[in-house]
Amino acid sequence: MKKLKRICCCSLIFALLCGAAGCVNQHPGEAAGSSENTEETGESEPKLVATSPAIADITDRLELDLEGVCQTSGDLPERYADVTQVGMPMSPDLEILKSLDPDYVLSPNTLESDLQPKYESIGVSSLFLNLKSVDGMYASIEDLGEKFGREKQAGELVEEYETFMEEYDAENARNEKPSVLILMGLPGSYIVATENSYVGNLVKMAGGVNVYQGEEDEFISANTEDMQTKDPDIILRAVHGLEEEAREMFAEEFETNDIWKHFRAVEEGKVYDLDGELFGMSADFDYPKALDELQTLFYGEGE
């Protein structure tokens, strides 16, 4: 079991450091279903598979049915209660996928470099959605709405988002922006989240200034000495995968590594652990709750 955890952890780190860009990136497979023309004419519904919970939520709100959906320890929309499960988001079962003969498999573009060749090997077309940011998610929603005849549903979702952000930005317009260091904890290790990651995007939307700006990757490695020179006002600790172990790692690191005691944020008690359900790897519709939590941490009473 420990060996399996190490393998999963290494695979996760590789995926985090190898994200792709774009909104909806399309990859046609040689043996893909032939219903694209009928989609455009409205004669039939597309056969779709969603390989992440965030994407399943998107397709549900667009009122799209699925042929297959990912496994998850969380909840999936009721619409997909009896839909065939195709395995975990990072490693969907290719045999099951092929047997479903979908028109498109929908996956996050953070996993594109790993999954696209696998989909191509079984002749399945794929669409990779940009879930690195809230803006990217809604751009992907608009693209899907246009492609699958759900413009009305997509438009309503975008309008809700724009209304929320207008009100949220107005509330924080006069607040002084704090500088923020974001750590992403994995079992046994941690990395720095830049503003190009989803949690980094949320921090930016909330008015925080990432101390590691100008980076191209979503996550980078940095030593504690360099982090200290950034002198962050606030340190946020996010976790992904085996959350309990990751939090224990953070607690031990901050207790035993003496350098943390010299960070101003630590001295002032401004180190906060983020809820893994709200601050995950992919954008989802819980972003208002995440932004409200950051608003409290940045400008109110942090806990």
UniProtKB/TrEMBL annotation:
Classification via InterPro entries: ABC_Transporter_SBP (IPR050902), ABC_transptr_haem-bd_IsdE (IPR019957), ABC_transptr_periplasmic_BD (IPR002491)
Position of the signal peptide: 1-20
Names of required cofactors: heme b
GO biological processes: cellular response to iron ion; heme transport
GO cellular component annotations of the record: membrane
GO molecular function, one term: heme binding
Domain of life of the organism encoding this protein: Bacteria
Record key words, sorted: Cell membrane, Heme, Iron, Lipoprotein, Membrane, Metal-binding, Palmitate, Signal, Transport
Pfam families per UniProt: Peripla_BP_2 (PF01497)
Domain Fe/B12 periplasmic-binding, first and last residues per copy: 47-302
Family: Belongs to the bacterial solute-binding protein 8 family.
The protein, known as: High-affinity heme uptake system protein IsdE
Species assigned in the record: Candidatus Eubacterium avistercoris
